[in-house]
Amino acid sequence: MTEPLLAVENLCVDFATRSGPVRVLNDVSFTLAPGETLGIVGESGCGKSMTSLAVMGLVPRPNGRIASGRILFRGEDLVRAPARRMRQIRGAAISMIFQEPMTSLNPIFTVGRQIAEAIRLHEDVSKAEVRNRVVDVLGRVGIPDPARRADEYPHQLSGGMRQRVMIAMALVCRPQILIADEPTTALDVTVQAQILDLILRLQQEENTAVILISHDMGVISQVSDRVMVMYAGRAIEKGPCRDVVEASAHPYTRGLIACIPDIDRTERMAESDRLPTIPGIVPDLRALGETCAFAPRCALADAACEAWKVAPIRLDDAHVAACRKAARGIVA
Amino acid sequence: MARDPAFHPPKSPFVEAMAIFLGNRAAMAGLIILAVVILASLIGPSLYGVDPKATVNAPFLPPMEDVASPMGTDYIGRDVLAGILSGGPATIMIGTSAALVAVLIGITLGALAGYYGGLIDTILMRFTEFFQVLPALLFAMVLMTLFTPSLRVTIIGIGLVMWPPTARLARAEFMKLRNMDYVRAERAMGARDRRIIWRVILPNAMPPLIAAAALVVGVSILFEAGLSFLGLGDPNIRSWGEMIGSNRDYIFDCPWAVFFPGIAIFLTVLGVSLVGDGLNDAMNPRFRER
Amino acid sequence: MTDGDAILRVRDLTVHFDTGTRDAEGKPRVVHAVDGVSFDIRRGSTLGIIGESGCGKSTTALAAMRLVAGARGRIDLGGVDLGGLEGEALRRQRHRFQIIFQDPYSSLNPRQRVGSLIRTPMALQDQGTPETRDRRVDELLDLVGLRPETRHLFPHQFSGGQRQRIGIARALATNPDLIVCDEPVSALDVAIQAQILNLMKDLQAELGLTYLFISHDMGVIGYMCHEVAVMYLGVFVETGDTRAILAAPAHPYTRALLSAIPRVDPVNRSLMAATRLSGDPPSPVNPAPGCRFAARCPHAVDRCRTERPALRPVTLGGMERSVACHFAGEI
Ligand SMILES: Nc1ncnc2c1ncn2[C@@H]1O[C@H](COP(=O)(O)OP(=O)(O)O)[C@@H](O)[C@H]1O
Ligand SMILES: Nc1ncnc2c1ncn2[C@@H]1O[C@H](COP(=O)(O)OP(=O)(O)O)[C@@H](O)[C@H]1O
Ligand code: SF4
Ligand SMILES: [Mg+2]
Ligand SMILES: [Mg+2]
Hints:
- The complex is a heterotrimer of chains A (332), B (290) and C (331).
- In chain A, 33% of the residues lie in helices and 22% in strands.
- Chain A is α/β, with parallel strands linked by helices and 332 residues long.
- Chain A has two domains: 1-93 and 175-267 and 285-290, P-loop containing nucleotide triphosphate hydrolases (Rossmann fold, 3-Layer(aba) Sandwich), CATH 3.40.50.300; 108-173, no CATH class.
- The two termini of chain A are 28 Å apart.
- Chain B is built from ten helices and no strands.
- Chain B starts with 12 loop residues before the first helix and ends in a 7-residue tail after the last helix.
- Classes of the chains: A alpha/beta (332), B mainly alpha (290), C alpha/beta (331).
- Chains in contact: A-B, A-C, B-C.
- The interface between A and C is large, with 50 and 51 residues.
- One magnesium ion binds at residues 48-49, 181-182 of chain A.
- One adenosine-5'-diphosphate binds at residues 15, 17, 22, 24, 42, 44-50, 60, 63-64, 285 of chain A.
């Protein structure tokens, strides 16, 4: 592996709530190499978005704060970087696209103007040059007739087109890292396929590193090089996509994959067969300690699990799982 | 079958709303102001024991000049403090009753317009607009001159000019809520319109309406003061508004006779609107999360 | 899809919404949300409707429930034409068909306790006495996997999955012949989704329920539905046995839809090689004549743009289904 572009180390994020402090990210570590796609997957509320916001320096203030850990971007710790430096990095070296393309665009400005803003924030270029780049980037994200579309307002575009505009805005300054937080969740599957295809194509052209966040294991398995599975604020399994999906070491990862009604699998099911399920619901983050948060729902849990202080167990040099039984080969 | 674990302790929306309300400093300040005003009105007159309608001292007596009349006297020598203490119930009564009239009319018309939409909505909203473009004060003045000013005429008159904003708010809430899935579910279960309007949508539309009603109370008190100031109130009732109204010709000779009732009105309206805002926040589910 | 044993028969269901605006030529702009849809559902089976957002799935569901004003067409539920009933007569029939909504947060009245929520349909339909209703509430809560003591709680005290269970209990309360489910698991996380899907299947097996099941997720449809109708811009483009259609889709749109599904498969990355549809679905306002799919169809020819293809039986992969494409079975 080449030297990591981004290394997140032992990141903890706390939130102050009416019922006391809550740890929404707990000891999260991962790395990202240039040109690589890291998929982050998990159920809603597990901390996927918070992870990306932390990297962007956008943990909501004043209630949220990074309690400990480092976020090293090419060796520079972004946790300690001053606000001015973060503004320089955001949108230029690291940029982000969000789930909801409608609310992330300003309805009262044309899309061309909003992309131009993104350029002018970071670069000192002439008006004509800006315009050229706006039209060029709209064309590159597959918007037909980009010169005309640049002068349209967000509401004049379809959902898929708006998401393309968001991608154009994120890519116009040629970032080294693109964080896409559920970029296709609000879109239909046929449009989702187009958008994912677009992100990967642009990634290859520029060798951009991508963090793709999704709750959909299908999307993650189709596009990621490496995968990180999150549960209740922790990264519970990390590794190459194929290992995590096909040789999952954590019972939660296996449950998450098994409970998807996948058409290839359900085709072979009998009428009386049922989907495998993970019993119960995700825990209240307030009630968590240092032990395995999945234990109450885990079919393999025993008394020792209840007492075990969670730690990443290394299965091989790339595959890690936070399950006591993963190390001993008890887990198939 | 798997049973979902983890139950939060039972807490009703009402209990939760109360907890939020009690934790809201501005609302608590408003509540304290109102409590003081009401307490003063209830026990003040008997404690102080001065007849507010009788000439008890020299006219135009400034405050603090005579310990017997700490807030001074008005143009015919009536005690201002006695007027303030005894004017509270009438003022608050007029304010709340007029607001009640306005809110009842407003909610009824707004609910029907918002729920049914279409032609019913168009007709009711034209009617509302008609009342809204009428200069409120002029309309009330006409009412007060047509009928002999009395407590009832004052209340109905104020109520009649105050309802359109409530109607608009109720209409907007009903239009929003009538498309909620739980309203659809009621219809799917075979509920009749009457039930859906009054038993399903109205309770859910109440939070903003209660907050608005609190504002209407405040505005009604001010309005009554305005009518009295113009000499259109019932002269037999000593409200704060009437105190201001009857002294308006002597405002430069005994400003205190206008100033103190003005302060009383200001504090009451402030208290009511702070409590109203607090109620709105407490009953707004958005603030309940986390 | 016609069947002698059908509990629900819908013929030429049509819902148009007038937007109240006019296009450049002065013609009224009308949303053709549902345009002449017909289907049957066998008693005890599940018919799925799949399609992308805005294609008219919810409108079909609500129209079948007689909850949309201005819908046209026959809706025959066990011999009674619901489409012809109004007012009190319709109200009296409502215990026979119930609905489960997508959003577990907005489908339950936040001011009603769970017990009262589930009791309401029985009370409104004068079923039983107050005591038998209370007993039935406990029975239903148990049936959907909730503790009977939870009847004193308010909806916001439950998680999304638990709320959906409450919605299911409410829909079951009057022992309906038909339950219309409008994306009942779309708002839930996969783990909870699996629990709810299994619950709905168990209830069907136990109580012999009939579902009209709407979803935009082919995996969910494949698991839940005996038959499926693929919907595009207000019309059905392919209907038939779910397994037949999944194994050998005949309509170009069904094929595109299936190939766009991201399978959980890190090795065979079919998504990136998929036959890709360009563009978004066009607007359902005053749709062009001809095939609704022509604007995005890779096989479209002139005939497709002028002549609307009707649903007709086609055999593909040895299995029969109905397809609305001029070239079905040939392409
Ligand atoms: N402003 C906030 N205050 C308190 N908790 C928050 C806040 N924002 C997010 N959280 C909590 O942080 C956790 C992680 O949230 P998030 O990262 O958005 O999850 P995901 O993106 O995986 O769905 C959740 O449990 C959420 O409730
Ligand atoms: N009340 C309405 N008035 C106008 N248009 C509507 C109304 N309800 C739905 N539509 C339109 O009808 C079409 C179908 O909507 P819907 O049935 O909700 O689709 P789906 O459930 O498949 O996403 C959409 O274009 C939608 O905008
Ligand atoms: S009728 Fe023509 S346009 Fe429509 S699906 Fe068939 S080939 Fe495509
Ligand atoms: Mg998120
Ligand atoms: Mg829908």
